[in-house]
Structure formats: C-alpha cells, structure tokens
C-alpha cells in the first residue's frame, strides 16, 4: 500500500474511527480525518502525520487562522476520542466487521452478479 500510494501520489488514508484504529500492515505517513473525529456533531477536519513527516514540516506549518482549532470543535473531538477509548470502539469494530463480512458473503456472494465481497472495518 505504501509503495502504491507513494508512486501514485495518493497521500491520504481515511480511517472511519480516526486514529484509534491500527490496520497492519498499513502505516500511513499522513492521514486526514473528519466527521468521525467529532462523531459528526461538529465540523472539524484533522491532518495527522508521523514523526518523519513532522520533522520535514516542523516550523513551516503554522496555525492561527480564524477557522483553525475552534475550541468547541476541539472539545468535541477530545471527548469523542475519550469515548472511543473508554468504550473500546476499535475492538468492537473489529469483532462486528468480521460478522458483517461473513453476512455479506453469505447473502451476496451466491448472486451471479457479485464477484467478491471485500471490506475494511465497517466499510463494506
């Protein structure tokens, strides 16, 4: 995945539950996260990057625009992340996603117009 995204220029990876989910062997350099970071209660987008990228942009990327870091959005995101961890949402998604793929396979794979069923997390 990393070589494909680097060679194609794709540099974002959407994770429905933001940064709480780790999907080996995918280790993105940069992730963009929206909606899920606040459970869609407040419009907020986030860019997350690893240490290597951080070292490259350190001191270059600035913040301070009127639309950056809105206190309500950040408070909602912080609380949402606390709930994701407290309620073990990532672990629940892992369990439920297996059931989802099994059910989709059972229901749709026998149809002649369906060649395969794939999914990642709850994104079937």
Automatic annotation (TrEMBL):
Q: Which UniProt keywords are present, listed alphabetically?
A: Pyridoxal phosphate
Pfam family, any one: Aminotran_3
Q: Which GO terms describe its molecular function?
A: pyridoxal phosphate binding; transaminase activity
Q: Does the keyword Transcription apply?
A: no
Q: Does the keyword Protease apply?
A: no
Q: Identify the InterPro entries for this entry.
A: Aminotrans_3, PyrdxlP-dep_Trfase, PyrdxlP-dep_Trfase_major, PyrdxlP-dep_Trfase_small
Coiled coil regions, renumbered to chain: none
Which family is annotated?
Answer: Belongs to the class-III pyridoxal-phosphate-dependent aminotransferase family.
Instruction: Give the protein's recorded name.
Output: Uncharacterized protein
Question: Which organism does this sequence originate in?
Answer: marine sediment metagenome
For this protein's source organism, the top of the classification is: unclassified sequences, metagenomes, ecological metagenomes
